[in-house]
């Protein structure tokens, strides 16, 4: 009994009476070398037998597997939109992606989850890696597995200043400057920031831009409430809001923290924005559903993902070593009902 052959170039050759080397060249785009009738027979047989190329074998031979390792947690709408942008751009270029991630939003410096994932992706011969770090404190040694193989490494959303590699994200510093300027324009003089994770570069950049702008006005009283965990930050804000001389404007480092700020302000019997103005960041879905609807900065996660994938493709398709690219996309303000002129004299 004859052995059943899988759909392969060898079987196509047997079906058509054409040399296997000829089948190989035709299926790899070199049909101009052969007669039209020969090419037609090979392509029809390939379709009939449901032949699919072995990408792994081709990758070994060419050094390119047409795959990207993507390390971004799809745990929030913002992250999912970044992944969506990456996926669409890679799909259009006939690339696939391996998606894996660290479950932690902010990981400790000794968490080796991402390093283990990097090893897994490198072992599967991806052409490069796009990742969103959970920690800013890692050194360049963390990425040696990637760089030693001359693979592109593109960071999204969170940059690591100490690491010289590509980055696509939001212009967080400029956003902090804008929000502080808006509070000053609305005559607020008692202002605070509220959130978690000052060790995360994107948050740190927001706060740096915000604080540098406020520092230019000596009449402003400013408090930073940015802790390592949300419970501690909430307790500090709760104690401050209870005071007679409470902040009249709060910059929440993202819209999720704005939910906590709303609850604390309302528990104290204060009104938004009459007593306290609140400015968020990200413009996630629930922002416009809050009561009152939240004024925030709208980021463009899909565009971040798309640009990251475009840069990835440019890097792997270039023979030359290109210098690192740092692209920061400016968000835009979305004004709703949580912001008003200060009523407290």
SSE string, helices as H and strands as E: HHHHEHEHEHEEHEHEHEHEEHEE
Provide the number of structural domains.
Answer: 3
CATH arch. level architecture of the largest domain: 3-Layer(aba) Sandwich
Total of helices? 12
Query: Mind describing the biggest β-sheet?
Result: 6 strands, parallel
Low-confidence stretches: 1-5
Instruction: Summarize the amount of helix as a percent range.
Output: 40-55%
The first-level CATH class name of the largest domain: Alpha Beta
Task: Give the strand line-up of the largest sheet.
Answer: 2-1-3-4-5-11
**CATH fold group of the largest domain:** Rossmann fold
Shape: elongated
**Strand composition percent:** 15-25%
CATH superfamily of the largest domain: Response regulator
Query: Would you count the extended β strands for me?
Result: 12
Q: Would you tell me the overall average pLDDT?
A: 88
* End-to-end CA span: 96 Å
- What integer value in Å does the Rg equal? 27 Å
Structural class: alpha/beta
What topology emerges from the helices and strands here?
Blueprint: H1 9-16, H2 20-27, H3 36-48, H4 55-62, E1 67-71, H5 77-92, E2 96-100, H6 113-123, E3 129-131, H7 144-147, E4 153-156, E5 166-170, H8 172-185, E6 190-196, H9 201-214, E7 221-227, H10 230-241, E8 249-252, H11 255-267, E9 277-279, E10 296-298, H12 301-317, E11 326-329, E12 332-334
Parallel strand pairs: 1-2, 1-3, 3-4, 4-5, 5-11, 6-7, 6-8, 8-9
Antiparallel strand pairs: 10-12
Helix pairs in contact: 1-2, 1-3, 5-12, 8-9, 10-11
